[in-house]
Amino acid sequence: MRPTEVSTPLAPSSTSVAAPEAIPDGEPNTGQLAVPHGEADQHDRHGHPPANPVGKRLAILSLTALGVVYGDVGTSPLYTMRETFSAEYGLTPNAANVYGILCLVFWALLLVVVFKYLVFILRADNRGEGGVLAMLALILQKQSRAEDRRRRMILIILGVFGTALLFGDGVITPAISVLSAVEGLEVATPGLQPFVVGIAVVILFVLFVFQKHGTSRVGRAFGPLMLLWFLTIGTLGLIEIAREPQILAAVNPVYAVRFMGEHRFAGFAVLGAVFLAVTGAEALYADLGHFGKRPIRLAFFVLVLPALLLNYFGQGALLLRMPQAVENPFYYLAPRWFLYPFLVVATLAAIVASQALISGAFSLAQQSIQLGYSPRLTIVHTSQREHGQIYVPEVNKALMVGTLLIVLGFRSSDALGAAYGIAVTGTMAITTMLFAVVARTQWNWPLWRVVLLSSCFFVFDFAFLGANALKIEQGGWVPLAIALSILTLMTTWKRGRAILAEIMLRSSMPLDLLLADIGRKRVHRVPGTAVFLTSVTDGAPVVLLHHLKHNKVLHQQVVLLSIVSADVPEVEDAERLQVTALDHGFFRVTAEYGFMETPNVPRILMMSDRYGLRARPGDTSYFLGRERLIPTGRSRMPRWRKKLFSFLSKNARSATEFFGIPPNRVVELGAQIEF
């Protein structure tokens, strides 16, 4: 490692930007202080809802959950039944097929959404937070690094790949939801068919552009809008069921068995379309931290499930009475006079479903950064009151480009149906695997119970996954390609930071030796406080050694600050800091943050005041390291991955902004590192 230059900001007009010295494996890279807002009677101090809300608060949370949690699964009736009778399966809408498919849809909703997610998966929360990465962090709390490295690595790869699949889902869901809604124009006014793709592109473009303004205001309307949506689709379905009440017999599982036995391979293949009815179930778990278990379950059983079943069975009744409606049974449920208002409501519901996935991608990006699987990105908190309202511009741009390309490439929801299911089924299968580990290691379930329950989950996980795998050639490769690309980026960043941390550790100096040397040489001291951000929690950081070598001076107070990540969503303030006073005015400060929090360095210094470390903002300077990575070293990483890591590091958000450091108080020290 060779020193290069020293920049000397500190002038008020300085805009010097610095990257921190190697942040350790798993250390968070964040910028702004996460200030959890919310009324005391509504949320806890971290912005989470109460564990067991009742009365009015329960009703409000349940209504809000409609707009965030159930947007995706709630808009599935737009395309599910139509997809099951797609030409590729060769099924005609006769009574036997309609009963068989409805039976499959009914039991898919009960087994996947109710039995798997609402009953069991929601229990695997990480201090109130859900999602694949939260579950992975929960598992890793009891997985020692030295205990079983291979097992630990397998779990990490599974969790990261599940996260990558969800990013792929975030690209496809807005495309298929909005396209399906706008395709109602083909029923209302067939002459507008050539404009469907263009209208969908415009709606999606506006949706992504609007993200920078935040969704807190519009979010308040999401719940009532989805309430209107579920009441509407349930009522339309009920009207049609009243005309053909015998359709309710489709709940009998015998119809599904007969259907599968008669059609065999085609029956298995159509499971890929049936699965569309439960896409969005993964959002139940991912949004757990925003609403809690009780409101999510209440909203589903009281409104979502009845409305979905009424609509699906209503579409089935319509097909028995009017088989030609198979081209779009959802919109044919509506009376002619109601088509255009229904189209507007459907489009708004599709936007809500899209927003839920986009916001989910932002949250996943934040968790990935905190847990060390992503470079620093811009994280903007868009609401002062609502927990989890963030905007990540880089992720938003990537989602927008990907979604618009998919709409222009596939051009219809029918074509997109082949690409949709593979990402969600993959995520669900990975969730089952991680759940089994949680049940065994965290809850100490007996092995027979874990195997029995996991086997039940795997039966329908792999059945749906296998059916969707048949569509890889027709478009299922798209989410897989997206997921594999993101997996490569995340694992490359994780491995690269670990290697860089090892290099920095070898280049550091034992702190006791440095302090002894400072005492002997009587280094000149100047007023003020110097803060050195470092990943080295034991020795003297390289950036400090370079500062002494070049400037030959030290401030009266020297703070060695390390920020580390915990495998929990939030860390209590009482457990946040460890401050150790050393000789010669040195302080060792370690600040611990959860994966749902964003550290702020000036705030850390303010909190350190009660430990005897008093740093005036106007007299504090921040010394950061900027690395120039040269991929010519002997580290065990392929050269192409070294170049990729170097590219990611170069384009990561500056540490000055990311850690909330005043840019006119930064001193930047550069170094060339061969790795």
Can you tell me about this structure?
- The structure is a single chain.
- This protein is an alpha/beta fold.
- The chain folds into 2 domains: 2-27 and 497-674, no CATH class; 55-470, Amino acid/polyamine transporter I, CATH 1.20.1740.10.
- It is 57% helix and 9% strand.
- It contains 26 helices and 9 strands.
- The strands form 2 sheets. The protein has a 7-stranded mixed β-sheet, with helices on both faces. Strands 2-3 form a two-stranded antiparallel sheet.
- Helix 4 packs antiparallel against helix 15, helix 6 runs antiparallel to helix 17 (339-370) and helix 9 packs parallel to helix 15 (293-321).
- The chain is elongated, with a radius of gyration of 28 Å.
- The protein starts with a strand and ends with a strand.
Structural class: alpha/beta
Oligomer: single chain
The N- to C-terminal Cα distance equals 9 Å
| Number of self-contained structural domains | 2
| Proportion of residues in β-strands | 5-15%
Share of helix among residues? 55-70%
Radius of gyration: 28 Å
Low-confidence stretches: 1-42
In the CATH hierarchy, what is the architecture of the largest domain at level 2? Up-down Bundle
What is the approximate shape? Answer: elongated
- CATH T-level fold name of the largest domain: Amino acid/polyamine transporter I
Mean pLDDT: 83
Strand order of the largest sheet: 1-9-8-4-5-7-6
Alpha plus pi helix count: 26
| CATH domain class of the largest domain | Mainly Alpha
